[in-house]
Known about the structure:
The relative contact order is 0.11. The strands form 7 sheets. This protein has a 7-stranded mixed sheet. The chain has a 5-stranded mixed sheet with strand order 13-21-20-19-14, with helices on both faces. The termini are far apart. The chain contains 19 helices and 27 strands. By secondary structure, it is α+β, with helices and mostly antiparallel strands. It is 30% helix and 21% strand. It has 3 domains: 51-214, Aldehyde Oxidoreductase, domain 4 (2-Layer Sandwich); 221-304 and 365-441, Aldehyde oxidase/xanthine dehydrogenase, molybdopterin binding domain (Aldehyde Oxidoreductase, domain 4, 2-Layer Sandwich), CATH 3.30.365; 311-357 and 454-718, Aldehyde oxidase/xanthine dehydrogenase, molybdopterin binding domain (Aldehyde Oxidoreductase, domain 4).
Amino acid sequence: MNQINVTRREFIITSAGAAGGLAIGVFLAPMANAAVVNPMPWQSPNDKEGLELSQWIVIDPSGIITVVQPHAEMGQGAMTSTAMMLNEELQADWKMIRVQYADANRHVLNNELWVTMASGGSNVVKARHPHIMQAGASARERLKEAAAQTWGVPRTQVTAKDSVLTSGTRRGTYAEFATRAAGIKLAEEPKRKTPEQFTFLGTSVPRLDVPLKVNGAAKYAHDIRLPGMVYAAVYANPVPWGGSPKFDFNAIKARPGVLAAVELKAVAGKRGLADMQNGVAVVADTYYRAKTALDLMPIEWDYGPNAAMSNQTLFDTAYKKLGEKGAVRKDDPAALAAIAAAPADKKVGGDFHRPYEAHARAEPITTTVDIKADGTVDVYVGAQNPPAVMTAVVEQLGIEPKNCFVRRQFLGCGFGSSSGTFAAKQAAQIAKEVGRPVKLIWSREEDIRNSKHAPAYAARFEAAVGPDGLPTAIFTRTFGANSSDNTITDMPYEIALRHHERHADLEQANIPITTHRAPGTGLVGFASEQFIDDLARKGGWNPLDWRIAMTKTKADYQLVLKTLKEKAGYRMDLPRGEGMGVAVVESHGTIAGAVATVTVSRRGQLRVEKVVLAVDSGHVINPLNGTEQVEGSVVFGLAHLLGGGLEFQKGAVANSNFDTYRLLRIGDMPTVEVHFALSGGEKWGGLGEPGVPPTAPSVANAIFAATGKRVRSTPLTLHDLSWA
Length: 724
C-alpha cells in the first residue's frame, strides 16, 4: 500500500466535495498550495484593493466590507457579535460583510489601536459594545457626509441603509464614496443608538465561523505548516516550580528524525504566575517522532519541596484554615452573636470544597514560532490575548516589539488557558536554539498537567433561622486563591446580619492558576446556593419560593426567578429517586437561574434529565448565539461537576487524560431549555459564562431532593449516591 499523507483537515475538505457531500460557498485554497499559510482563511478572496475607512472597516470597489476583528473566535461567536454590533450602526448589507483578524503588532505599536484585543470575562458584548458600535456610527456618518458634499445637500438629508446612500432621487453605494469618506473628519462624533432603536441587533443571525468549521476551511494553530518546519514535544516538571531535569539525549538521538533536545528554564521571579516552567523538549521532523523520543528519553526530575502535596494535604490545610479567623470582607459581629445565641434546632451549617480543575479545552496548546533571517518573528497561535503572546515572545527572545508578529488562528476553546504566553515562550526558545521554524504541540497529558488550573476552593457557612423560617444571621468563611467572594458578600438575599471572612493564601501556591469559565462564581455558587437550599428547607420553605421571598426588593432577580417558576415547573413532591433543584447566581453582570431535574437509581446511578435556565443579561444582541452560549455553559458546568477535578499525588497531577479526568459524554447530555428574561435599560451583561455557576448547585440540590444526600464536593464520581 502506498503511504498517503493527509491531514484531518484535508480529509474533511476533500470529502466535502465528494458526491452526496456538503458544499458551502466559501473560498478554499487549492490543495497544491497547502503549505502556504493564510493567517485569515475566513476572508473571501478579493483581487480588488480595499480602502481602509478606519482601523475597523475596509471597503473595496465591489462593495465587500471587511470588518477587522480584534477579539478571538473560540466558539463563543465573537466574530459574528463584533460584526453585528458594528453593522447595527454602519447599516451595510450583511451579505457583503467579511471578517478578518486585527494585527496585534499594529495594535501594540499604535497605542492600543483597537482599544483592547483581549477576549475573556464574557466581555466582547458586555464591555466592548460602546467603542465597537461607535466605530460603526462614525463610519456611517462619514460616508453620509461624503455623499452630502458630493450632492450639495445637508448630511441630515442622506439616508444610509443596506450599503446604499440615498437623498431624494440621488443614489450611490458605500464603495463609491469610501475614498472621499476616508479623508473626512467629523466635527462631532455621532451618538450611538439606544436599544429601542436597534434594527439588526436582537435578531438571530447564524454565526459566521460555523460554515468554515463544518467544511474544514477554518485554520487552527494545529493546522499550520511552514517550509522547513520541525516539531517539538515538551515535558515540563510535573511538580510545578520544581527544579531542572537531568536527561540523557544520547539515549534517543539516533532515533529516526530526532534533531535535538532543548532544556527549558523557568525565569526567576515568575513563581506563581502562568509562566514557563523548568522542562525539556525533544525536536524531530514529525510530532510523532518527537513525542515518542521524549517518552523514551531517561529524565530525572528535581521535584523540589512540594513533592508531598496531594488533594488530602490541600484540604487538610483548607479545613484547618476554615477554623481560623480570616481577613474580614463584610463585618457585622452581631451576626456571630446571633448565631451563637440561636437554639440548636434553629441553626444550619455546612462545609463545601472543590479541587483544582483543568481547562481541558478541545484543542491542546499548539504554537508555531518562525524566527526569520531578517530578525522578525512570526508566531502562529490561537490566543485570547495576542498582545500578551507578543510581549512574552519579545521578552523571551530579547527583541524589539516591532519585530514580532502574532498570526492569529481560530481557537479551539478558551476558558482562560489560551493566552498561550508560557507555550509561546517555550516555542520561541526552541526555535532560537534549533534555528528552524518550530511547531510546539502539547500532548493531552501535558495540557492537563501543566496548562495552569482553575483554583481550589473551600467554604464554611453557618446561619440562624427565626420563628418565620427565614434567616436572621449568616456567617461565612472561605479559603482559596482567586475566589470570587462577591457572590457571597453581595448575595441578593435580604438577611439582616452578615459576617464574611476570607483566607486567600493557599499553602500549595506552587500550583499556578488562571481564570476558568466563570472562574470564581462557579466555585462559590456551588457552595453558597446549596447552603441557601439547606437554609430554606430548615425554615420549611419551598427553596424556589424562598428565593423569591428573599429578593422581593430586587426587580431583576424577581424577573429571573418568576420566569424560572413559570417555565420550569419546580416541584418538591416527586417520588423517591427523582428530584428537582434550583439555584440562581449573578456572574459577569448577568443573573442566571437554573432548575435541574435528576433521577438517581437505588444503586446511585445519576442521570441529569433536564436543565431549565432563565437569564437576564439586560440585552441579547443575537438570541441564537446567546442560547448556544448558555447551553455550552451548562455542558461545562456539568462536566466539572460530574467527573472533573484534578487529583494531585506526590505533587503532580495523577489524572491527566480523559480516561481518568472524565468530562461529559454525549450520552450524558440532558435536555436544556433557555429562556431570556431581560430587564433592559442600562444593563449589559455577558453570556459566555453566566450559565455555568447555577448549573452545578441546581443539580446538587436536585440530588438532595431525590436522595437526601448533600453533595459537598466535586467530582460526583467520588460520592456514593445510593439510597434505600
